[in-house]
Inverse folding.
């Protein structure tokens, strides 16, 4: 129960941050990537504020504690390989982000104050996630 | 479409995003990546599903409650429904193969100085820039 409540609190803070920052506004996000046109550099301040806080916060946590408050250990990603899957997937994500103006972290909070057309994007994104998981589950072709 | 330059609100919003990530790490020991959170919806039988759903619920509820008590957030989707749907499918495939998005790689991963997240973030920032530039200035009007 503690873990669920703490995730809810973290989600509330994260979600209000996304809304206040402008990350949930596709027009603003797209303008960050348009220095040749209607440029809006605000997103650099979002990334700056978020990275600074997380960088310092993580260091304080890891220096002072062996484990989080409500779990036996920290669950940190263990993957180290930089491969075609990581780069190709990230490249595709950027293509979709550039077409739509939505990233997953922006779209979820946007659902709370602009349900349409955010829901359309999220349904399509869910379909894309399921499609990719299905493709990943296919048996690998044998290579001679 | 011109949008207002909001350095102060964007910085404060960014600090709050980071604070959400720090809270989740301090209390639950988890990375605040939205791609992983969506697994809470898609794998309801997973033991991680309940807390992931709670995070998603909080992320949706906070702006909803804020607007109910009078806050206003600028919003415009300057594109067509067809492009939103196509973009959505591509984002879904991309974040699944790339194992993360702006929150997981771009904030939490970079804060941990993960080389994987640095490569992922530089890659998607570059292709987003290329896509917007091509759509607006090469193939656009």
């Amino acid at each position: 129960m503690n873990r669920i409540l703490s995730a809810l609190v973290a989600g509330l803070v994260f979600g209000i941050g996304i809304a206040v920052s402008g990350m949930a506004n596709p027009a603003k996000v797209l303008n960050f990537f348009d220095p040749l046109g209607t440029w809006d550099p605000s997103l650099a301040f979002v990334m700056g504020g978020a990275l600074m806080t997380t960088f310092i916060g993580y260091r304080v946590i890891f220096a002072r504690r062996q484990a989080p408050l409500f779990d036996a250990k920290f669950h940190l990603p263990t993957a180290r390989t930089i491969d075609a899957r990581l780069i190709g997937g990230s490249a595709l994500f950027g293509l979709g982000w550039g077409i739509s103006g939505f990233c997953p972290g922006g779209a979820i909070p946007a659902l709370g104050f602009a349900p349409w057309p955010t829901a359309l994007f999220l349904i399509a994104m869910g379909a894309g996630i399921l499609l990719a998981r299905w493709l990943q589950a296919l048996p690998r072709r044998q290579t001679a | 479409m011109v949008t207002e330059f909001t350095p102060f609100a964007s910085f404060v919003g960014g600090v709050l995003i980071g604070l959400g990530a720090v809270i989740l790490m301090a209390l639950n020991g988890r990375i605040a990546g939205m791609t992983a959170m969506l697994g809470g919806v898609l794998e309801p039988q997973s033991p991680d599903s309940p807390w992931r759903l709670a995070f998603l619920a909080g992320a949706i509820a906070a702006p909803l409650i804020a607007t109910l008590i009078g806050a206003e957030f600028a919003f415009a989707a300057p594109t067509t429904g067809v492009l939103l749907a196509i973009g959505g499918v591509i984002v879904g495939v991309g974040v699944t193969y790339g194992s993360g998005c702006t929150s997981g790689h771009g904030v939490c991963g970079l804060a941990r100085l993960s080389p994987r997240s640095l490569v992922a973030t530089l890659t998607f920032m570059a292709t987003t820039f290329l896509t917007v530039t091509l759509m607006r200035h090469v193939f656009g009007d």
Summary: Chain B touches chain A through 111 residues (CB under 8 Å). The helical segments of chain B are 7-28, 34-42, 49-68, 81-97, 102-111, 115-138. Residues 7-138 of chain B form one domain.
